[in-house]
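Hey, I'm writing a tutorial for new members on how sequence and structure tokens pair up, and I'd like a real worked example in the thread rather than a made-up one. If someone can provide the structure for the chain below, I'll link this post from the tutorial.
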Amino acid sequence: SRVSTQSTGYVVERMRQANISPSEGGIYFGQLLGMCDQVTYLLGAGGYNSYKYVPYGPIEAVLPYLSRRAYENKGMLKGSKKEIELLKGELKRRRYGLLPN
């Protein structure tokens, strides 16, 4: 079954309450490539199954979809400064082989 939500925290909390293992519970988190990358990273670091998806096809078919996603996630831009800082930290971690905090 599928659940569509923009509240990853809610799903993670419900999984904890139900004692569902992050990696063995059959629950997957998916985000559009380029959106909420910090969430995908944190989910993966926490052992949750997560993936990025890339829509493809003729531009006239894909553009309306991407426009809807951008509109739905317009509040995401407010968090872009935080995401940039997280990405910088991740780049440093990968370059210098540091472990996540």
